[in-house]
Design brief:
- Pfam families: Abhydrolase_1 (PF00561), adh_short (PF00106).
- Residues 40-148 form the AB hydrolase-1 domain.
- InterPro entries: AB_hydrolase_1, AB_hydrolase_fold, NAD(P)-bd_dom_sf, Sc_DH/Rdtase_CS, SDR_fam.
- By secondary structure, the chain is α/β, with parallel strands linked by helices.
- It is built from 24 helices and 17 strands.
- Helix 2 crosses helix 3 (117-126), helix 15 (341-352) packs parallel to helix 16 and helix 15 packs across helix 22.
- It starts with 17 loop residues before the first strand and ends in a 7-residue tail after the last helix.
């Protein structure tokens, strides 16, 4: 192996890309570096039919804290190609990885990150104990070990249960392109004349990836035509005679949940070959490094930081197999209006099931009391959900201190009753600001965070049976909750693409403190107090406590339920709104305040 050293400019920006050439066997590999060479080295390996440009977005982010290296694999991009097809054998690809690692980080092992065929070829040195000491950690994205896949297939054929047969059928369907690449001559011709020139359009149509500068490269047709040999030389021989290949270093497998080519089932059972395994899901398609560079970079950085000695993040703790002993262990739940009532009961319910809970309320003392009753895994915050700027500061503080939440419960709300003609514009603004815009702020601000985070999640919005139960005395409140119900349906449709569920919870009469703070429009202070006391006694006689609503909220998250009527009267009203709307409109004339 020979290399051409580069002069590294002093105080160079991490975005400056430095190039060198590494000779390995008969090929010259074009190697590209960013960041400070004294920092830990992360080596990025691309797959088929890509080049090092696949990693542009990921590399720029990682280079802020690491020495980032990537290269064009043999026969791709600026690297030279072997003289004949035998030059694409897996053992030679493994030699390339180690040659680059030795050139760019001769004294320290590298953190290896690979995608697609890059991952497949990197399993070779990762599981080869003669050279694996040169690798400190391995992150694999959409590229399993062919030996592991061979054992995976054999295990399912030995025990052909319906579940195993479904998994096999799913992967056989996903792998259609593997069979096509076995056909002589035709794949090469198609890549050079049809597929290669239109690859960017195909990525946009199939994967939803719009054109990214530098990807794909102009040489993609010729690169892919040569790279077809990867499929012909390295798949079926491994599947027919899989070896026992184990890994000693920490391994992180990132599973894009919308991968059209590599099924999630292939990651099952890998723990029998790897002692230190983290298995993480990313809501993305096959080309996740291009479509979700921020999420991929974050996952890599969290993993490398931990291998370097830092504590595991909550996301890493979830990914570590067998670490959770309770259903919501290592999940972060944010609950607004958690100082009392349904919010308080919900915070306690999630904490009881292992979650860490952010207890938010307009009344900081109430939030602190709730958090104290839960224990050290609860964190009190003060926030006015109606204030967008305050909600953004709150969300930023939560993310900075505790991370992006997995579950957000938009519970904060106020009560209002009375005749429509007695309800002032100020009354309308107040109830809509809190009950509707408070939920809008929670969905929009935390929803954007969760979507960018890339690991899915769930949002729960507290609506009410009033959302579909018209009443002459609850026009403002019912309207605000009906808007929350519709908002939830709309947001659910949009965030589904990000793996984020949305549930609308519709309680009926629940014995909470809301009756003591409800405003009765058109009433003087004395009448106001009388109506509050009357409502409080009526709700207390109903005997349906907030703990039962909290149980339904937890179950809604568990099931991914869309709309959840809670109390019996809420369920009856839901039925009536669908099948007897005329009866519901007639009943609306009854004055419930009397």
């Amino acid at each position: 192996m020979t290399s051409v050293p580069l002069r590294f400019p002093e105080e160079a920006s991490q975005l400056v890309v430095r190039r060198r050439t590494v000779r390995t066997g008969e090929v010259d590999l074009a190697v590209f570096e960013q960041g400070d060479p004294t920092d830990p080295t992360i080596l990025l390996v691309h797959g088929f039919p890509d080049t090092h440009r696949l990693w542009d977005g990921v590399a720029d982010l990682l280079a802020e804290n690491f020495h980032v290296v990537r290269y064009d694999v043999r026969g791709a991009g600026d690297s030279t190609a072997p003289r004949d097809r035998s030059g694409y054998r897996a053992e030679l690809l493994s030699d390339d990885v180690i040659a680059v690692a030795d050139a760019v980080s001769p004294r320290e092992p590298v953190h290896l990150v690979a995608h697609d065929w890059g991952s497949i070829q990197c399993w070779e040195p990762v599981t080869d104990h003669a050279v694996s000491h040169r690798i400190k950690s391995y992150t694999s994205i959409s590229g399993p070990s062919m030996d592991h896949v061979g054992h995976w297939i054999r295990q399912r054929l030995r025990k052909p249960t319906p579940a195993h047969l479904r998994e096999l059928a799913a992967q056989l369907t996903h792998s259609w392109y593997v069979y096509l690449h076995q056909i002589p001559v035709l794949p090469e011709l198609m890549w050079r004349t049809v597929i290669g020139p239109n690859w960017a359009k195909l990525l946009e149509k199939v994967e939803g990836i719009r054109h990214v500068p530098g990807h794909p490269v102009p040489t993609i047709g010729a690169d892919a035509a040569r790279g077809v040999q990867l499929y012909r030389l390295n798949i079926f021989n491994r599947l027919r005679s899989p070896r026992r290949r184990t890994a000693d270093m920490p391994v992180q497998i990132i599973i894009p949940t919308r991968d059209n080519y590599v099924s999630a089932g292939l990651a099952q059972g890998v723990e029998q070959w790897i002692d230190k395994l983290w298995r993480r899901e990313l809501v993305a398609g096959h080309w996740a490094p291009v479509s979700h560079p921020e999420a991929v970079a974050r996952m890599v950085e969290e993993f490398v930081d931990h291998v370097q000695g830092l504590p595991m993040t909550r996301s890493l703790q979830r990914a570590k197999g067998g670490s959770a002993d309770q259903e919501f262990t290592n999940q972060l739940v944010v609950v607004t209006g958690a100082g009392r009532g349904i919010g308080q009961a919900t915070a306690r319910a999630f904490a009881h099931l292992g979650a860490e809970v952010v207890v938010a309320d307009l009344d900081l003392d109430a939030a602190r009391q709730t958090a104290a009753s839960i224990g050290p895994a609860a964190y009190p915050y003060q926030v006015d959900v109606a204030d967008e700027d305050a909600m953004r500061r709150f969300a930023d503080d939560v993310a900075a201190e505790h991370g992006v939440p997995d579950i957000v419960v938009n519970n904060a709300g106020i009560g209002m009753a009375g005749a429509f003609l007695d309800t002032t514009t100020a009354d309308w603004r107040r109830v809509l600001d809190v009950n509707l815009l408070g939920v809008v702020h929670g969905c929009q601000i935390f929803g954007a965070m969760m979507a960018e985070h890339g690991e899915g999640g769930h949002i729960v919005n507290l609506a009410s049976a009033a959302a579909y139960t018209p009443s002459r005395t609850m026009s403002a409140y019912a309207t605000s909750k009906a808007a929350v119900l519709m908002l939830s349906d709309c947001v659910r449709a949009e965030l589904a693409d990000n793996g984020i569920g949305v549930s609308a919870i519709c309680p009926g009469i629940v014995a909470t403190d809301i009756t003591n703070t409800t405003k009765f429009t058109g009433a003087d202070d004395i009448e106001q107090q009388r109506l509050r006391q009357k409502a409080t006694k009526a709700y207390a006689r109903r005997g349906f406590g907030p703990e039962k609503v909290a149980d339904d909220i937890v179950d809604a998250v568990r099931r991914g339920a869309a709309v959840v009527p809670v109390t019996p009267e809420a369920k009856i009203a839901r039925f009536g709104s669908r099948f007897t709307p005329g009866l519901m409109r007639a009943a609306a004339r009854w004055d419930v305040t009397r």
